[in-house]
Write a structure and sequence with these properties.
Blueprint lengths: L1 H12 L9 E9 L7 E9 L4 E7 L7 E7 L16
Antiparallel strand pairs: 1-2, 2-3, 3-4
Length: about 90
């Protein structure tokens, strides 16, 4: 429980933005499963003024693992294409 409180405190202390050019943020989720301990899922992300994006997640894909997402965000004046994953 102390680890969860420390993670929440550290995420709360992160600034909303480091400068006008950057967007920085943090989120905290918890997975709740029957007869399993709570699983914390902290997430930290940032985006540059040129729309480069990075995201770091812990416990998202599997327990005690990190996930890193890197890429670039694209924007258009009008939406002309929508891509959705298909699940059965």
């Amino acid at each position: 429980m102390h680890n969860h409180a420390l993670i929440i405190l550290l995420l709360w202390l992160l600034p909303g933005s480091a400068s006008p050019q950057l967007k920085i943020g943090a989120e905290y989720y918890t997975y709740i499963q029957q007869q399993q301990p709570l699983t914390p899922v902290p997430l930290v992300y940032f985006q540059t003024n040129k729309n480069w994006y990075a995201e770091l997640r812990y416990n998202y894909e599997e327990l005690q693992t990190f996930s890193i997402y890197l890429g670039k965000n694209f924007q258009a004046e009008k939406t002309f294409l929508t891509v959705l994953p298909y699940r059965r």
